[in-house]
Amino acid sequence: KSVLAGGPGAGQAAKACNNMLLGISMIGLSEAFTLGERLGIEPETLFAITSAASGCSWAMLHHLPIPGIVETSAANREFRPGFAAAMMLKDLSLAQEAATGTGTATPLGALAQALYEEFVAGVGGDLDYAAVIRLIQERSASGLTPSD
Hints:
148 residues, mainly alpha, globular, N-(1-d-carboxylethyl)-l-norvaline Dehydrogenase, domain 2
């Protein structure tokens, strides 16, 4: 679907906003499904509940970072990229530049950028952006507190 965003540059601005939201959403999915697993909830059960509730999102329905639940998920193909984490980082960085330039507070966007920077600097740059769940799982396994 094509939507005219406005004048010159508006399409790029809309893309930066959309991909910032997508990156934040994927981190939220990664956290929720990692927490659910640690609480003893099977991923299939959590998906059945959340996909029919207020936590549902496009990212969940198309790119859930858990294998075997959503057919189109990169998790089903070992996170071979459809949209590489390095590209997500680029878009998050562009969104943060725009936020700084306009004086817009985007604390979750800034945190998403920092988490993707950490992930890409590690082993994740060539993996799909949904593979950021590995960073969340690694941090959880190492005993980091939620604010770390």
